[in-house]
Specification:
The complex is a heterodimer of chains A (215) and B (730). Chain A has helices at residues 21-29, 67-71, 97-101, 123-127, 133-137, 154-161, 205-209, and strands at 7-11, 40-44, 54-58, 77-79, 85-87, 108-110, 115-117, 143-147, 164-165, 178-181, 194-195, 199-200. By secondary structure, chain A is of the alpha+beta class. Chain B has four domains: 4-101, N-terminal domain of TfIIb (Single Sheet); 111-182 and 375-559, Rossmann fold, CATH 3.40.50.740; 199-369, Dimethylsulfoxide Reductase, domain 2 (3-Layer(aba) Sandwich), CATH 3.40.228.10; 608-729, Barwin-like endoglucanases. The chains are: A alpha+beta (215), B alpha/beta (730). The complex binds iron/sulfur cluster (SF4) (4 copies). The site of one iron/sulfur cluster has 14 residues of chain A, from α1 and β3.
Chain lengths: 215, 730
């Protein structure tokens, strides 16, 4: 039986210096238009004169139970066997349902392409044998990328050795695939996902509709 | 024309280097390139994809990069993992390099000023017209005011060497660099202590004190990466800074030291180390000079005294001194980079150098190390002699110990304005922007207005170009062939790098090498530029042939081998042949032979001290207009503490006036506890005059407009933190 790849990223937020190299690298690699980003550095503190004390990178979590997939009326967004949640540009009608349905604010509506867009772990680069742009460019190597199903990969070893956590949004555990170190002082960037018309997503709504093939 | 020749040679070489399959046409229509940028990936056939080595030029670090090129359009710059210096990283600016190349604000053809200086009225010239005009001015000014009546200023760039060579052939020794607006006082201090500017081994250091430096934020250098690795290995980082920088945010301890009192802190540290005998006696005996004098000198500087000056508790100063000594020799006071802060900046840095010497960290793992720089050869020219030239540089005698090869921007500008000791009437600048980086912008304008002719070679219409009479467009680093350049970082990662054009030069841009060569021809100096960049490289490689292979295969040459324990038994290049606590040359010149503390000037009532700096996405004024980086910082702000802000009724985001003796600006306030109540802060690179910088024009304020132009007495380095300002509501 051939085993599928399961791509994940492990973030050691304590290493992040908020240099934003990953944000610019991602923007160039993926032609992200002005005013939008596929990834972000969340800052703890800094507002109203308080001190900034931690910098936490975030991006699409390539969830195993993705609420964005459940919210898409035309099945344009789906999870691939390698774990990456993608958007089919031919099918996407740009309705934006998935944008509000994501508990991690990972999506935006691309005004140039008029479809939804988000981090896809730089699939084009993976095809060319390269790691994601944000991963390679980072001065402090805050992100570690790899295939969790390969026991020799650094990510598989780190998952065994380190105390890692995943961040679940309020009400909804979409089974995210970005891991953080346990000591990380978590920020509340996870939001409550919504259905069109500002309707709260009912419990298990996304589970019943999710087309996750991961086992 | 020689330009085409140069380009074709470089082109061929570069095709060999990159192993490209597709040949490309020599002339490229820039608009086609810009259009091609927006095409979909699907249209590209694989044989049009190339990966080419180059070196980043978004700051002076020269990080190794690999350009991903599709159809002669650079799509992405990735780090070159072969570079030991950049270790597989490109910072935000490095990633934004594509936008320096494909920037609609780029200079496209030669421009001649039409209206008054700074009016922004231009006439397009052909290259022949432009070069003829420049040559005529160079000739005229040289004849009327001697060759030294023409000033040259080139920034940190791999082609600046050609500007220097041109100045030499032309006959002017009035050449200044950007460095006197930056780090010369630091260099002065360490040279005058160690005989060399050491490199800090942050990676293996167990205890780093970082006074005023912002290594995690101001510039990403190898030290930034090493500092994070060291942090992971439980090294301790103590930051002294009036501002809560990102480095402070990630430090183990942060002290918002009273600005200008760092010397008091380190004299206090020296006092503890010496009085408690926490030093290595053998090291002091064998390697240092003047210990007894130092011991006597620092008796007065108790931690209790230092606490009053610095506003850092005495018990912390004592504890830090002990911790530092117990981590020695893998402990250090980080030498830092920009030191253009106070009038006794060299002496302040001397106090850092002295504490390092007390820690015995010289040539040690985790200490200060011998810089390992490889020296490429050069093409020596036998410069003509011009009899009527004055005896010395125009800025001579204005600082006690200036670096002749760097000069002083501050003192040169004063000399030009005064016309003393002799007049200077011409100025050529290349890729440097003193209108933004040199404190007191009004004075720079005054200087320019005394000139008969000023020409600027740059990529975009900087504020300096905006004031010039003739503006010549240069290609970006991704479009030109450069000579080799040695770079020095931590001792573990020095090397050599070069550039070949990744894509053909856009618009009518021409490298400064070609420009000075053409000028030389017109001035009957052609014989001094009778070579190509290839010839120049050959001369550079003569004694280091191994470098060529590495550059071709890896895109970089790394110097390997041990970084410590390599100076054993060797003398120091100082007068005493030892590390000098006490400097007798200083004594001879009437300079304090050991740093004597002088209190910083008291901040007048209702005033603040203003300090300046930068963040990880801005390299001074050269990158603020880059649209990718501009998105991260659209304008700078004035950081002000809530205490005074509330007292004055200034709200976060409100526009305020900031006024000093040098000038007045308007800027939005950022009310934050991240600066001391007595200190306000501004980022560099905004408030431009140039309407050619369309993103940032009209945004934020210019530091040079409010900073007064004081200078470090010893080195002539600009002193930018000696300015007091008032902040008022608009
Ligand atoms: S729910 Fe959000 S984070 Fe999860 S896969 Fe969908 S877009 Fe990504
Ligand atoms: S993996 Fe690629 S698409 Fe995702 S955030 Fe990083 S650079 Fe952007
Ligand atoms: S590149 Fe790395 S250090 Fe810089 S902001 Fe991104 S994650 Fe943080
Ligand atoms: S530090 Fe950044 S801007 Fe400077 S050379 Fe390296 S990548 Fe370029």
């Amino acid at each position: 039986m051939t085993q599928h790849k399961k791509y994940v990223i492990i973030v050691d937020a304590a290493k992040c210096i908020d240099c934003k190299a990953c944000m610019v690298a991602c923007k160039v690699e993926n032609n992200v238009p002005e005013g939008f980003w596929r990834n972000e550095i969340n800052v703890l503190g800094g507002e109203d004169g308080s001190l900034r004390t931690e910098f936490q990178p975030s991006q699409c979590m390539q969830c195993d139970d993705p609420s964005c997939v459940a919210a898409c009326p035309v099945q344009a967004t789906y999870k691939k066997e390698n774990g990456i949640v993608v958007i089919d540009p031919e099918k996407c009608i740009g309705c934006g349902n998935c944008v509000t349905a994501c508990p991690y604010n990972a999506r935006y509506r691309n005004p140039v392409k008029r479809i939804a867009d988000k981090c896809d772990f730089c699939e084009d680069r993976l095809d060319r044998g390269k790691e994601p742009a944000c991963v390679v460019t980072c001065p402090t190597k805050t992100r570690v990328f790899g295939n969790l199903n390969d026991p020799d990969s650094l990510v598989a070893q780190m998952i065994k050795k380190e105390k890692l956590i995943r961040i679940a949004a309020p009400h909804i555990n979409t089974q995210p695939n970005i891991y953080y170190f346990e000591g990380t002082q978590l920020l509340d960037w996870a939001v409550t996902p919504m259905l069109p018309g500002n309707i709260n997503m009912p419990q298990n709504f996304w589970k019943s509709k999710s087309s996750s093939k991961e086992g | 024309m020689s330009a085409t020749k140069t380009q074709m040679i470089s082109r061929r070489k570069f095709l060999q280097l990159s192993g490209a399959l597709a040949a490309t046409t020599a002339v490229t229509n820039p608009y086609r390139v810009l259009y091609a940028l927006t095409r979909d990936k699907g249209e590209i056939t694989p044989d049009e994809i190339r990966e080419v080595f180059s070196a980043c030029d978004m700051c002076f670090n020269k990080c190794g990069l690999i350009a991903h090129v599709e159809n002669d359009v650079i799509k992405k710059l990735d780090p070159n993992p072969n570079s030991l210096k950049s270790r597989g990283m490109l910072c935000a600016r490095g990633n934004a390099g594509v936008k320096q190349l494909y920037d609609p604000d780029r200079l496209k053809y030669p421009l001649l000023r039409k209206g008054a200086r700074g009016d922004g009225k231009w006439q397009r010239l052909s290259w022949d017209q432009a070069l003829d005009h420049a040559a005529e001015q160079l000739d005229k000014i040289g004849k009327e005011y001697t060759r030294c009546g023409f000033l040259f200023m080139a920034g940190t760039d791999m082609q600046s060497t050609f500007v220097h060579q041109f100045a030499e052939a032309y006959g002017s020794y009035n050449v200044i660099s950007h460095e006197s607006n930056c780090l010369l006082s630091r260099n002065r201090a360490f040279l005058d202590t160690y005989g060399v500017m050491p490199t800090p081994d942050v990676l293996n250091c167990k205890y780093v004190i970082m006074p005023g430096s912002n290594r995690f934020e101001a510039l990403v250098t190898p030290d930034s990466m090493d500092l994070m690795t060291a942090k992971g290995n439980k090294s301790k980082l103590v930051v002294l800074d009036p501002r809560f920088t990102k480095t402070a945010a990630l430090a183990d301890e942060w002290y918002p030291i009273k600005p200008g009192t760092d010397m008091a802190f380190f004299l206090g540290i020296a006092h503890v180390i010496i009085s408690e005998e926490l030093y290595d006696e053998t090291f002091i005996k064998e390697k240092t000079f003047g210990f007894e004098e130092l011991k006597e000198h620092v008796k007065q500087y108790t931690p209790q005294w230092a606490a009053k000056e610095t506003e850092i508790p005495a018990k912390d100063i004592t504890r830090i001194a002990r911790e530092l000594a117990s981590a020695a020799p893998s402990a250090m006071v980080y030498p830092g980079r920009r030191s253009s802060d106070y009038e006794d900046s060299t002496q302040i840095r001397r106090s850092y150098a002295i504490v390092n010497a007390l820690l015995g960290n010289w040539d040690q793992k985790g200490g200060l190390q011998v810089p390992k720089k490889i020296k490429p050869g050069s093409m020596h020219i036998e410069a003509p002699f011009y009899e009527d030239n004055p005896d010395d540089r125009v800025d001579a005698g204005r600082a006690q110990m200036m670096f002749d090869e760097e000069g002083s921007f501050k003192h040169t500008r004063d000399a030009v304005i005064e016309g003393k000791p002799y007049p200077i009437k011409g100025w050529m600048t290349y890729k440097t922007n003193p209108m933004q980086t040199g404190a007191n912008r009004d004075k720079t304008i005054e200087m320019i207005n005394t000139l008969d002719f000023m020409m600027t070679v740059d990529i975009a219409m900087s504020d300096t170009a905006w004031m010039a009479d003739l503006v010549l467009p240069a290609p970006s680093y991704l479009e030109r062939q450069d000579p080799l350049s040695a770079f020095l970082a931590a001792s573990t990662c020095s090397g050599v790098i070069t550039r070949d054009p990744v894509v053909p030069a856009m618009f009518e841009s021409k490298p400064v090498f070609w420009i000075v060569k053409e000028l030389a021809k017109r001035l009957d100096l052609g014989e001094f530029f009778d070579f190509t960049v290839d010839d120049f490289r050959k001369a550079q490689l003569k004694k280091i042939p191994q470098v060529a292979k590495a550059l071709k295969e890896d895109g970089v040459y790394n110097i390997t081998g041990p970084s410590f324990g390599i100076h054993k038994g060797k003398p120091f290049k100082t007068r005493s042949k030892k590390i000098e606590f006490y400097n007798t040359r200083y004594k001879d010149k009437g300079i304090d032979p050991m740093p004597v503390y002088k209190q910083p000037k008291t901040i007048p009532e209702n005033h603040f001290r203003i300090v300046v700096g930068r963040n990880a996405y801005v390299t001074q004024s050269a990158s603020t207009n880059n649209s990718l980086l501009w998105e991260l910082e659209k304008e700078n702000t004035l950081w002000i503490h809530p205490k005074p802000a509330i007292a004055m009724g200034i709200k976060n985001g409100e526009t305020v006036f900031v006024k000093s003796l040098a000038g007045k600006v308007t800027i939005k306030a950022r009310v934050t506890k991240e600066t001391r109540p007595d200190t306000v802060y501004m980022d560099t690179g905004f408030g431009v005059l140039s309407k050619g910088l369309t993103n940032i024009f009209g945004k934020g304020a210019c530091i040079a407009q409010v900073l007064e132009d004081k200078a470090d007495k010893i080195s002539g380095n600009m002193a930018m933190h000696e300015t007091f300002v008032t902040v008022t509501k608009t």
